[in-house]
Amino acid sequence: MSTPRIFGDYESKWQKAWDEQGLYHAAQPGTIEAKEKFYGLVEFPFPSGAGLHVGHPRSYVAIDVVTRKKRMEGKNVLFPMGWDAFGLPTENYAIKNHVKPQDATTANVNNFRRQLKMIGFGFDWGREVNTTDPAYYKWTQWMFLQFFKSYFDESTGRARFVEDREAPVKGRGERGEGSGDTLPTTHYPLPSARMAYKTTTTINWCPSCKIGLANEEAIGGVCERCGSVVEKREKAQWMIGITKYAERLIHDLSTVNYLERIKKQQIDWIGKSEGAFIDFKVAYGQRLTVDGGDAVRVFTTRPDTLFGVTYVVLAPEHEFVSKWIADGVILNIDEVRAYQQASAKKADMDRTAEGKEKTGVKLEGVSAINPANGEEVPVFIADYVLAGYGTGAVMAVPAHDERDFAFAKKYELNIVEVIKPKRDIFQAKYSLVKKELESLGTPIENPEQEKDWQKKLDEEFNGFCKRVELGEICWPHEGSLMNSREFNDRYSEDAVAEITSWLEKKQSGEKTTNYKLRDWIFSRQRYWGEPIPIVICPSCGYVPVPEEQLPVLLPDVESYEPTENGESPLAKIREWVETTCPHCGGKAERETDTMPNWAGSSWYFMRYCDPHNDRAFASEEALKYWMPVNLYNGGMEHTTLHLLYSRFWHKMMWDLKLLPESIGPEPYASRVSHGLILAQGGEKMSKSKGNVVNPDDVINEYGADVFRVYMMFIGPFDQPAPWDVKGIEGVKRFLDKVWRLFEIADSELRIADSGLETIYHQSVKKISSDIETLAFNTAVSQLMVLTNAFTDAGGVPEEMVEGYLKLLAPFAPHLAEELWHTLGKGGSVHMSGWPTYDETKTVSASFELVIQVNGKVRDRIQVPSDISEDEAKAKALASENVQKYLEGKEPKKIIYVKGKLVTIAM
RNA sequence: GGGCUCGUGGCGGAAUCGGUAUACGCAAGGGACUUAAAAUCCCUGGCCCAAAAGGCAUGUGAGUUCAAGUCUCACCGAGCCCACCA
Questions:
Q1: DSSP secondary-structure letter at A495?
Q2: Within a 10 A sphere around the Cβ of A178, how many other Cβ atoms?
Q3: How far is the CA of A496 from the C1' of B50 (A)?
């Protein structure tokens, strides 16, 4: 063997060889090779013009290591890769550089593929998918149509086909012409009962990208992509009814193995809160109550504070405001209108800029009636009430809500505290009386007397509860807002339940559950996305494009610029837009909106199962075999977007029986997340700071194996880690050392030292379990320990050579394969089986027994591993140094921890 | 403001159940080899002390325990996420 060469010819040589051998080919079910499966998945990248970022490979190498181990263990492994290639960056690039988005995508994909291949991943490249490929997006469009043709069945809590009301659903991909849709498509606007529906909503409009954004993409009122401040606009948009699945998206998390913080973030995002709707009848002008008039419906999680309501607040956008203006019941119209306009503009600006100062305007001429006690309270509009949450109206309880309190203080409104009937208040009172009596010299010893007191207490308590029910108990409170501890102390679930059922009896409210999650805005007014396969017919309404006409191809266009009025560039291509209605044959137009780029990524893991199927998105057989994904890794930034959307998408498909029942409603059995790779010094890598590390440079300098091992060694996988040029040098030295080890081994040096046996078996054990728990950094460190041991011993014992190379193989696949073949081994190390260990051999013959006196280490002695407890204690006591500390006294207690220590307590 | 995560050498970080704190790597100092350099190899390495013995050390302060980086409470600090969600 020549000089150590970690990078160079042999890496590309093996990459080529593996490719030709089809080493990473995942066998389809039904074939001989299809054994027990393992599906490892990494998020497919968006192929940007900038090329691969070092952050990508951290995730890919990790799952590559896991799947390589699984493959060696004899599993039939699916580890695929593809391209999530629709999206704005490509479109913007195309506009700027006057190229076709298609061409830019192809170029970027080729570059990404080249970069990934250099790293030596075990991807099954035969399964590569691309969301912009018509053969792929045909099925994205097809799925959209399935959602359009289905509705949410409240009685079963599952989505089902509209035609399901009359006829059973046919199999996947076989829903041909003439499938009778019994829910007419002629409804305009469409009933939102459908899973996919079009409706006019206020959308987040990015003036820079000229695109409508989902709520998830406009966090903090800022466009997720370009950082521009978003505006509110009214627009007809396609929506998908994810809110119908809110409960199941929370509930089913208990059936999967996700990192706790991922579960928590999803639950928080869905934002479930239990409470009640309460109706406040409205009184106009002089008339106190109006039967059959408007009632403002508010949402509250604290119906038990109803007696503390001193005013009602509507969001400035609330429909009643304009209605009341039109009806002429509002007396201060100018002031109200001015406030509405101001707050509409304010939504466009950074909200935190104005701090949390609360503003609002009283609606003169209107008041609301508290259904609990008939009290008339003023009505305000204020932008601290959000139009999009709950009912867009709240009952204000300044004594128990900080925001209401701040507002009430500013506008000098009443603050009324609600006292809850809490038993401990009475208990305290009872104790006081008892103490007082005792201090007067009349101790209560008589048990009868004690019972009597208890009885009185109960009576008084029950009477108090009654008065609360009648709405009598609430009285003005002059103090400031209670601190939160006091507030929570007084909170009572019973009181909430009681008041809610009372409201329901009176028909002025109902129990409800509210979610922060909004329906998914599915329309984008851009070119580079899947066209929504719908035809708009003046007489039939929204008509689905017949399935045999899919895909609806993106037409070639001259210019990709979106229009100023917010229409998609597709709208400018009249010959594409103009079509005939598939339903009535009359003149009609195509839908010009395209789908968000979350569409293609919501189901790509299904396509990988059977990527070349042209009759279905995947065969039932393939789905049954491969799904669910065993291990899915991706960034935390996708927890509330992609991860939630794809879980939801999978559930809809499963409900519609488009997926095999047996795979269950959850697509991913396990989801983990990697930490960011930071620049040297701990800052985020960014182009503007010029601290971006290019994987190409690293691989050219050090080779793929060094890059891979360093990626795994850099730190705990789920935590951020700063890139360190010196650190990678250390890894290079390590792999050089491995190489040299075999130069020695090659010279026929044989080691017969059983001292190596222990460390070898320990290493097999530790590395095996570390890969399972994704503790890659300690797995690499154990490989180093083992390598150092071999180096110190002067070589690798013959019987450990294969096992050692196998342990190395998932991390440094090229080096392991090269050495495997240099040593004359047949086949491929990557198919050679995972090494086993003998538990009894992980324990050495002797160990260092630590002896402590009062918790401090006083001596260490070498003893045989099978030493008995009594022997160990005796040896410990016999130690000279221990004797010194005992000072001839008898120890109080002696504790023996097997295989570790003896501790003597004085 | 709320939630989550975390504070261990000069640095990245180890440390199953509470049981030898600082594995592994980097950087540093010293030495060997070499005309020299690179590469490689060997030695040293938490702090106090000349050394030994001993003492002090896992953000700070208490507590539980024979024994605490690990458990409990309080405080200080950092990072991430959400943020007027009624």
A1: H
A2: 7
A3: 76
